[in-house]
Structure formats: C-alpha cells, structure tokens
C-alpha cells in the first residue's frame, strides 16, 4: 500500500511541477509529505451488536432508497463486493438498480449469482456515457430517495440506516430534506485497507463552487433528481453538476433561501462510503480524467449564470478545484452576501486568524501561507461563520450595520479596499470579539459571510 501511495504521489508531484512551476510544487510536496506522516486514520467496522440494533430500529423507518449503479465492464470481484455491501445494509428498504452498458456478459454473469428481488438489472442497448447510463437507471427508480454508487466502490453496512435516521429526524421537526451526504474514505484494491478520510463541513455554498467536496455518498430526493436528470455535456463532473442545479432549484423555491445559508441539505459526519483506489482509477490517478475537471468548471459557470452572477471560473493549482472571479467583485453580484474576509498572517508567514468557526476557533491556524491545508480547503473560497475585522470588505448594508452596532465609522484602506481598523479601533481592542459580534448580527439578518484566501493582511499576532 505504501508503495502504491508513493507512486501515486510521485505522479501527482511531476504533473503539479509541470503545471505550476518549481516554487509551488516544492511547497505542495513538503505539505503532502507532512500530512502523510500525520495520517493515522483507520476505519473500524461496526460490531455485530450495533448492526443488529440498527436493523431492529430500521424496521420502523418509512424511507426507501434506490441505489443507482451505472456499470461498464466492471471487474467481477469489484461488482460482487459492491453488491455484497448493499446486501449487508442494516436498513433493508432499498432497491439496487444496475444499468449495464458493457459489450460483454461480464456484469450480467455476476448478477445472475444473486436471487434477491431487490436487485434489478437492466442491460442497455448502447453505451450512453456515464450521465446517459445513470439516467436510464434513474427512470426506473421507485425509492423516495436516490443514492449514487460507483460500480467499483463500497457502502458501509450502516450507510442507508444513517441516511434514513437523519431523514426521519428532520421529519419529526416537519422538515423535508432534499439532499444529504456523508464523509468518505478511500480503500485499496481488495478493500482491506482504508485511508485518506474526507471529513466534510456542513453545506457550504462557496466551497461547493470551489470543489465538489460533497462527492460520496450523495443522496437526493428521487423526484428532484428525476426532474433535473444528469447532463451528458458535463460527463465526468455530472455529480457536481446535479448538486449545483439542485442547490439553484432550492434557492429558487424558497424566496428567503437566497439570503440565508440554511437549505434543506444535511451532512452526516460519518464515513459511509469507501472509494476504491487502484491503478487506473480516478482516485489513484486523478489527472487521467482531466476532461472531468473542465466539465466541473463549466458546471460551476452554469450555476453562476443561472443565478445571474457576473463571474469567471478558473482552474487553481489543484486538480478539480476552482476559483470564482466576480466582476467587478463578489459583493456587487450577490445581495445575499454582506462581508468578504481574508486571512491574517504573521511575520513567519503563518496563518494566525481570519476565518472562525462557531466555537470561535480560527481555522487553518499555524498553516504556512503557501500551504493549501486539509483537502486543499485552506486555498478555497468558502462561507464562514465569522471573519476578522482586520481583513474584510463590507457591502454598503454591512457598513451601516457596523456603524450602528459599534458607533464607529467604517474607514477603507485606499490601496486594498479593506476595512482600515487601525484608524478606527484602539491598539488593545478585542478584534475577535468585535468580529464575532459584527458577523453574528449579519447572520441574524440572513446574510452570508464569505472567506477569500487570496485576501491577505499581515499582523503582529492574534
């Protein structure tokens, strides 16, 4: 496994060097080596007692799932493992729909080994591509929710149980989820070793515009997914595209949603999906599908156009990651957003603040300014709980809120356009307290707060 990872990283480093130059490649390689030394993740399957208890509770759930698998010349051992992972679900209200576009009988011969009536096999007359093949499976789905499963990946035994539990919990509060997703990890070719866990945040509009961080496991209301369908024009990024179009639909359905961060989307903070990694797979050799990243860029562009935002989308240094450049700026395009903040760095070029979570903890603390952080998120535009008054730009409405809240004028730096806190606040002012007080008031008024890593302010300390 270590050998495979080292070969994978060597390929990534060579590609990164050619694309971005020596300086960026150097920092990327150093950061990657450091993160691997710190990676002590291991996946622990649930004990039988817990699985049995889940199965008992699941019998009282009313939610049913359709699991869509577009198959194409799938390796027999991978397909058996996939089917077995679905059969092992502690929540038994599901149907597995296999849409097979293979030229050979490889897939059909494996499916014949299974007699469970919940497994539904469809031999497609032609290969319509990943989106077209998935649409064929989607047409026949009858479950209330649809889950997407790649033909060589695995579900954890509690995947559907956890999804159903969250859906049912929301219903008790008279809320209907439109979409939900979980954490994920990667596994080796024989599914015995697990690594590179992807711990995800709650739904974050600007982060999903920067990268499809949702990825697997993705579950969506069947009616919504069927209405949207998958678009062949963005094959390779079809999941990212349908997520963005679903978000656009949700924002359009709720007249308040455009100004409020809360949408009927839930994140399950548990690993429910194993993404298989082997030579030739996208997870092992991501640059093998560069066309997918261009499709992802177009999907983000289409979302922005649908929202009538004036912006360009460009690739960043990292494959599958994008930057949205608004014209002339984000605040003039998006009335839902009141503040854009940046990062604070010290004289050692280390992050000391700028973006904070609900526990008032600074994200990316101590990270070198050239590093991209966990899952490259420190290099991504993203919604924030709060940003720092020492590096921010405010809309006219937010400027008025600042002056109303603090009794202090809003003064702008002439060259950067940032708030000129030095001319307004005392040197011993509690910047973080002011930041939270200000941002909490803006969020109370239904406004979004965005963090932009390319906005940088050097400070003496926190």
TL;DR of this structure?
The protein folds into three domains: 2-38; 48-296, Spore Coat Polysaccharide Biosynthesis Protein SpsA, Chain A (Alpha-Beta Complex); 328-458, no CATH class. α1 (2-20) packs antiparallel against α2.
Please give the structural blueprint.
Layout lengths: L1 H19 L1 H17 L9 H11 L6 E7 L4 H12 L6 E7 L5 H6 L7 E5 L5 H11 L5 E4 L5 E2 L3 H14 L6 E9 L6 E5 L6 H6 L7 E4 H7 L9 H16 L11 E12 L13 H17 L4 E5 L6 E5 L3 H4 L3 E9 L5 E3 L1 E2 L25 E2 L2 E2 L4 E3 L1 H11 L24 H14 L3 E11 L4
Parallel strand pairs: 1-2, 1-4, 2-3, 6-9, 12-18
Antiparallel strand pairs: 4-8, 5-9, 6-7, 6-8, 10-11, 12-13, 12-17, 14-16, 15-18
